[in-house]
Amino acid sequence: MLELRKFIVCCAVFTFLGEAVAQDFAPKLLKVTAAQQAAMGVNFSPAITVDAGSVLVSASVTVPPEKQAILSAPYPGQLSQMVVGIGDPVKIGSPLAYFTSPQMGDSRRMLLEANSDARLAKEALARDNELFKEGIIPQSRLNITKAKAENANAMLMARQAELKAAGINFDELKNKEAFNSYATGALKSPIQGTVVEAHNLIGQRVDTGTLLFRIADISTLNLEINTSGFKAMGIQPGDEIVIASRNAKARVTGVSQAVSASQSARVRAVVEERGTLQMGEVVTATIQTKMKPKTQDKALWQVPARAVTNWRGQSAVFLLTDTGVALQPVSVISSDDDLASIQAPLSAGAKVAVTGIASLKALAQKGE
Question: Which neighbouring-strand residues pair with 279?
Fold first, then answer.
């Protein structure tokens, strides 16, 4: 409740200040013919009316952390063959590439040794169990045999876990036929998804930890948004997000309760209608907040950010009129690199200048 009051107070203060400054000068009409506009390189773009609770933000399209996996070089070595490329679909356990490493060969040798030791220890335990039942050996010898079998089994599991963590598979028939090498194995995919990164390093020596593949399940997309703490105060889980340029929609699932050192807050959303969104791109989005700030009977419009200029310390736009161009003061509610939300007494179908603004400002100054 306290945050809500702060948000309302801040909105009221910003609206009041914007209105007060907007009254510093009246709209100024410039008589500019169509031919003169063309000569000055002036082009116009329509202003779009938007909801009073709209907040403009920049959003990064991501994949949930649990829906992606990264494969790196498990040992120092080299890629012998690439099996998949960027954009290829893969299933769990699908081979991605064949990797050769002397250290991997040594790990494979130790695995086989551990397997043999575990098998012999198991046979010895079975034999000593029979001897103990017949009263030939004492309990102490059986206990020692059991301990050796447990140790051998633990070593086997450790060796298996090492190669499993490395994502190496030696059992594929193709691997055995194509690479008659003790130190070569297939790197397999840990998840089902699509290859979004594949570094073609065939023949090059790589160190442990070198990134080779990135797999992602792109069936589910998220939006990661960094915005100002002031904007975040009016955003709540459940608010709808519209990405008009991609014909997509999302819904807010979480808002950070603290700001970073740069005084920005983080908003997370899940995409419900993906449209033409692609993983990794940065888009301009509009959050339709449920908390509506006071607009003082002025409509909220959305215009290209480059249309907003500064005139006598006040934000303004150049409007296309029947007799020329008008310099109109506005109040900027929110903006990013592409779009700006403004408050101004515009009429339906209004158009604002997006190019040639410097020439129009020079003309306005000349007329004074």
Answer: none
Give yes or no for a contact between 284 and 245, defined as CB atoms under 8 angstroms apart: yes
The tokens describing 344, both together, are 């101004």
CA atoms within 13 A on the CB side of 261: 0
CA gap 81, 321 in Å, rounded: 66
Q: Are 259 and 307 in contact (CB under 8 A)?
A: no
| Burial class of residue 101, CB neighbours in 10 A (0-12, 13-18, 19+) | buried
Query: For 15-36, what is each residue's pLDDT tens digit?
Result: 434 444 444 568 888 888 888 8
Per-residue pLDDT of 255-273, as tens digits, reads: 988 887 877 889 999 999 9
Measured between alpha carbons, how far is 291 from 12 in angstroms, rounded to an integer?
A: 13
The packing angle between helices 102-133 and 139-166, to 10°, is 160
Q: Give the integer Cα–Cα distance in Å for 57 and 154.
A: 54
User: Is this prediction's pTM over 0.70?
Assistant: no
CB neighbour list of residue 282: distance below 8 Å, 6 or more residues apart: 58, 59, 60, 61
Q: Which residue has the tokens 């998949």?
A: 84
Nearest to 43 by CA among 364, 359, 365: 359
Tokens of 216: 């992602």
